[in-house]
Specification:
The complex is a heterodimer. Chain A contains 3 helices and 17 strands. Chain A is an alpha+beta fold. Chain A folds into 3 domains: 17-120, Immunoglobulin-like (Sandwich); 122-219, Immunoglobulins (Immunoglobulin-like, Sandwich), CATH 2.60.40; 242-273. In chain A, strands 1, 2, 3, 6, 12, 13, 14, 16 and 17 form a 9-stranded mixed sheet that branches. A 4-stranded antiparallel sheet of chain A has the order 5-4-7-8, with no helix packed on it. The longest helix of chain A has 33 residues, at 245-277. Chain A is elongated, with a radius of gyration of 35 Å. By secondary structure, chain B is an all-alpha fold. Chain B has a domain at 3-270 and 405-429: Formate dehydrogenase/DMSO reductase fold (Up-down Bundle). Chain B has helices at 3-13, 20-46, 61-73, 75-85, 92-115, 125-129, 135-155, 158-167, 174-184, 191-224, 236-263, 271-302, 305-315, 320-338, 346-372, 393-416, 422-434. In chain B, helix 14 packs antiparallel against helix 15. Chain B is globular. The mean pLDDT of chain B is 93. The chains are: A alpha+beta, B mainly alpha. Chains A and B meet through helix 3 of A and helix 7 and helix 10 of B.
Chain lengths: 281, 435
Amino acid sequence: MFAILFSSVDVFSQEAKNDLLLNLSYFNNNNSYVYLKATAKTKIDGKFQLVKDVSVSFYINKDSAGNLLGKATTNDKGEAYLLVPASAKDAWNKSAKHGFVAVSTATKQFDETKANADITKAKLQIDTAEGRTVKVKVIELKDTAWVPVKGVELKVAVKRMDGDLNISETQSYTTDSTGAISAEFKRDSLPGDINSSLILVAKVEDNDQYGNLSVEKTVPWGSKFKYETNFYNRTLFARRGQSPMWLELMAYSIILAVWGVLIYLIIQLYKIKKIGRNPLP
Amino acid sequence: MENSAKQKVIEELLPQKFGKQGKIWVGILLTLCIIGLIAYIRQLSKGLVVTAMRDYVSWGIYISNFVFFVAISLVGSLITAVLRLTDVHWSTPLTRIAEIIAVSAITFASIIIIVDMGRPDRFYNLFIHGRLQSPIVWDVIVITTYFFISLLLLYFPLLPDLQIMLRYKEKTNKWLYKLYHYLGSFWKNTAGQIKMSERAINILSVTIIPVAFSIHTVTSWLFATTYRPGWDSTNFGAYFISGAFLVGAGGVVVAMYVFRTHYKLEKYITDGHFDKMGKILVMLALLYLYFNVNEYLIPAFKMKKPEEEHLRGLFTGEFAPIFWFAVSMAMFFPILILLFKKGRKPLPAFIAGLMVVIGSWFKRYLIVTPTLLHPFLPMQDVPDSYRHYFPTWEEWAIAVGSLAGALLIITFFARIFPIIPIQETITETEQHEKA
């Protein structure tokens, strides 16, 4: 009887597994390093929720042990990142097109899940030779030659603290037959660093064929950053010893006046005492 | 004044030993102080977690008590200084009562502020790292100053009485005689001494008024310089001072009745004193009521959202019972009682004074705590205990212990020193007879 009861409890305690949605993205930053990002989500109560602590294995071309690039675990945002290692150089150089595979490890909650990303090697070239005009070119690798690509949508922006700011009102540009776009920098008086430098960024986002590409260039188009602080000024909110002079004058004169009176009265008390010891006849 | 009459005055006004009632009273106060001390030791060893103060309510009944003590201490300046400088002589028998209330209250105001600190061992940092721009530093400076002025104002008029008590060695014990000798043996009643003492008292009477105004204005600024509903007011300095004079005067009326009844001082604290103090109390209650109307009507007229929540909490919400109790006790009922001549007789005036004191304590609580429970940003993802505040037994014990401590100082003072100035009474009677 107890065995049945406990076995039934055991049966109920087994939770049904949820579907894990795994997404794989390819990134090429500044034509210098390549990394992969896997995003894990699941649907709970009709809402997508990010899943953390999912172990993901990344492969190049196919998911076999010899093609393993590395492993990573999803963070609080459900994202796992892997920088394509130098050991994968030979496999990378073999072809102009690659397929990447991400495989999540099966857990109590989720079955093993796979995601693919097929890309053609491409890169961005940025040029600012003519005044404040930014020229960006998209080229892809065909066999062994880099050729311009027409019809690729890209954005040109300037890097700011909380994100990228488009350099003009135009949100995005599409490459012409030479694989290039031309954009005017229209952000006057944008604060730069101490050398007036701004960082331009051109990026292709979530392109089916090329993934995510970006390239950066530092230009002296910002207004010079001037460090201003009132830390050393005398203010009401300053640190100890830096109170405004008017406050110090007022406070200390009141304190001195009142305590001066008190000291005077204490002296009077001593005088009263003295008179008491040697009273006049 | 004949010598026998003088003798009689002196004998009637000399401090008396505790009777049975006095001993019971001291026993009760000492017990309350010891319970408070035990609670404080618990707080010291376990930390402020033994209190109900949490992230939002960081100022509970300790700070309410602090504001109450500072408020009641202002009575020293009202009775001793304001009435003295305006040449009001009927207040002479009340000056010492007012001054000892001031000294004991300001002593416990200083103590209770340290009790509110989680780490009192770090108190010295206030002096090492304190900023002149901070109202907390102003409060420390002004409380210390007020304490010394009150002490001097208590001591100077006491000198002639000490000399009288030294003459009555047989009526005192060895220890008290030593104390009187130490404090006042140098007083010989010479013309020079009297002149210097009179002058000192006059200087003190002038000095104490701005300092008394500063002490409570600065205390009000601890709140008013903070941008919070209920505190963000330019009215706060005057509002606090009017409330302080009210509670101080109420405290004096209560003390007058207790001393008069217990020590049989009907000849010195007369019905006339109650009548006059009753009138003062009505005036102060009306003044405080006026400031209360200002304090609540104007924000209520504009009804900014955060103010609205705070005001609704006070008038009809969580704090409504305490709010209406405090307002009725501190203002409405005393005004109703004391407006009539019969209400200014000793017993009704005593009841009205007691109401003022009790109501004023709760009023201080209402000034301090409800604001903290109405922050600008909503309280989210916090335990339920953070959303409300009800003091723990440790807080009650410490708060009640501190009130008992203040009463104990007054009680012991009345046991050791004459609670009505003897020499001044004799002098004024003589002047009255000459006139």
